[in-house]
Design goal:
The complex is a heterodimer of chains A (114) and B (114). Chain A has 114 residues and is mainly β. In chain A, 0% of the residues lie in helices and 55% in strands. In chain A, β7 and β8 form a beta hairpin. Chain B is an all-beta fold and 114 residues long. Chain B is 0% helix and 52% strand. Chain B is built from no helices and twelve strands. Classes of the chains: A mainly beta (114), B mainly beta (114). At the A-B interface, β5, β9 and β10 of A face β5, β6 and β10 of B.
Chain lengths: 114, 114
């Protein structure tokens, strides 16, 4: 149980375009989902907390206009990287908590902006 | 502020040898503690967690961890390492007192020699 599905696993886009990443909780409802960014050989950096039916809470230094988060249902949160640039290339991982205290992660999305 | 540290950036062990990965935490109160494993290009998989009770917790893939309050530690162990255990390991903490933020350690990369 507690499966989180993230799609796509890899995406390559041109500079200036937008990319949407989906995160779904398959067998549980997630009122809160989390989006992380991971640089090579580093730990996870929390970008934002996505709350169903309300605005996301962004961490300090994360541009909310560049990283748009929508959590329209209890099983789906999306992260849209708008006007992507090469510096946005990274590994993005979503997660959702069960019982409020255990995080379950998607398999991540490798974004490459050319 | 709350923190989770993993003193070892990289550990190399021979296949069949025992393993111990260190994790220390700094919280005002005992947090919930977790160990996750990440294979290259993948998301994080939960190995085990400690909430309360028995300080020795068993996880998947033959891993166990021991919570030691006196040492503020939650070290991960495995009696006999398999080549497939080579991965990145993250210790994480969570406390109700600090909102919904999970704090991750920097990770320990495990290499396994044949």
């Amino acid at each position: 149980g507690a499966v989180v599905s993230q799609h796509p696993s890899r995406v390559i886009c041109k500079s200036g375009t937008s990319v949407k990443i989906e995160c779904r909780s398959l067998d549980f409802q997630a009122t809160t989902m989390f989006w992380y960014r991971q640089f090579p050989k580093q730990s996870l950096m929390l970008m934002a907390t996505s709350n169903e039916g309300s605005k996301a809470t962004y961490e300090q230094g994360v541009e909310k206009d560049k990283f748009l988060i929508n959590h329209a249902s209890l099983t789906l949160s999306t992260l849209t990287v708008t006007s992507a640039h090469p510096e946005d290339s990274s590994f993005y991982i979503c997660s959702a908590a069960t019982g409020g205290r255990t995080l379950h992660f998607g398999n991540g999305t490798r974004l490459t902006v050319t | 502020a709350q923190s989770v540290t993993q003193p070892d950036i990289h550990i190399t062990v021979s296949e069949g040898a025992s393993l111990e990965l260190r994790c220390n935490y700094s919280y005002g109160a005992t947090p919930y503690l977790f160990w996750y494993v990440q294979s290259p290009g993948q998301g994080l998989q939960l190995l085990l967690k400690y909430f309360s009770g028995d300080t020795l917790v068993q996880g998947i893939k033959g891993f166990e961890a021991e919570f030691k309050r006196s040492q503020s530690s939650f070290n991960l162990r495995k009696p006999s390492v398999h080549w497939s255990d080579a991965a990145e390991y993250f210790c994480a903490g969570y406390s109700d007192n600090y909102g919904q933020n999970f704090v991750f350690g920097p990770g320990t990369r495990l290499s396994v020699l044949p």
